[in-house]
Amino acid sequence: MTTTLPGTALDRIAGRARAGAYGPDPAGQRIALAFTTTQAVRHAGRARGYRNEVLSLRLGAAVGSCAVEPGELPAEALTDCVGASVAELLDHPLVPVRVAALDAYLMRCRPHGPAHGARPVTVPAGDSLAKSRARAHAVVGLLPAATTGRVLVVGVVNSLLEQLRSRGLGYLACDLVGGTTEWGETVHPDASARLDECDAILASGMTLGNGTLDPLLAHARATGKPLVLFAQTGSAVLPRLLGDGVSAVSAEPYPFFWLDGGPSPLHLYGGHPPAGRADGGGR
Fold this sequence. Notes:
Layout: H1 9-18, E1 33-41, E2 50-59, E3 62-68, H2 76-81, H3 86-89, H4 95-109, E4 119-123, H5 128-140, E5 151-154, H6 158-166, E6 171-174, E7 200-204, H7 206-210, H8 213-223, E8 227-231, E9 248-251, E10 264-270, E11 276-277
Parallel strand pairs: 4-11, 5-6, 5-7, 7-8, 8-9
Antiparallel strand pairs: 1-2, 2-3, 4-10, 9-10
Helix pairs in contact: 5-6
C-alpha cells in the first residue's frame, strides 16, 4: 500500500516556510533579480546532444533555481518575479517560479554546509564530459553500497547510466521526453509505471518542478526503497525531504558544473559517499 501525505512535497515545505520554520517571514523577502540560463551541449565522443534551460531568482546573495523544458517559460515570468516577495511567488501559477522562489529563500536561510547536514565535495576542473563523469561518480556513490538490483533512473543523464554500468548495476531509464539512451536502450516516459520493477530510485531534481516527484516519494516511503536525488533544481528544497521518502541528495546550487571549466562544489546529504573530491570516470 502507498502512503499519501496531504498536499505535494512542494506545498508542505512552502507551508513550513510560511510558518517560520526556516527563518524570517517570506513576505518580507523580495527577489531582486530574475534570469534564465540556456545551455546546449554535445560532449566529445557522444552520439547525441541536449539542451537545458533554468530559471534562477536572486534573494540577497542567494540564488534559487528550477530547470524547465527549453522554450516552456513565458517571458513575462521574469517580470513577475522581479521585486515580488517570496510569499507572493509561492502562490505564482507557474510551478517553476514557486520552486525557484522557495529554493532562493532556503538557500538564504539554510545554506549548504556542515551546519545544515551537508558534506562538501569538489568536482575537479576539466572539460564538460570529465566534469559530468565526476559528478556522476559522486551521485551514484550515494546509493547504498549493498545495492545490487535494478535502479530506476528518472531524468536521463548518460554519465549516470555509464557510472551504473561500470558498477555492474542494471537500470531502467525514464524521462518525460522518451527516446533512447546513448546505448540504444528505451527511455520510458512514465516513471511511476515502472516503480515496481526497481530496487532503488535515482531521480533528478527536475521532478520537483514538473510534478512527478510525489509518486516517487510515496513509493519510497511505502517500500523502504532508497531514493537518491541529484538536484540543480531545488537544491536547497530537496534536502528538507530527507527521512520523508528521500535517503540522500546531491545538491548543486547555481552556478552549475557545466558553466565553468574550473573546480565546482557539490553538497552531499545522507548516503555514505567518500569525502573530499568527486573524482570519477555530462549528460
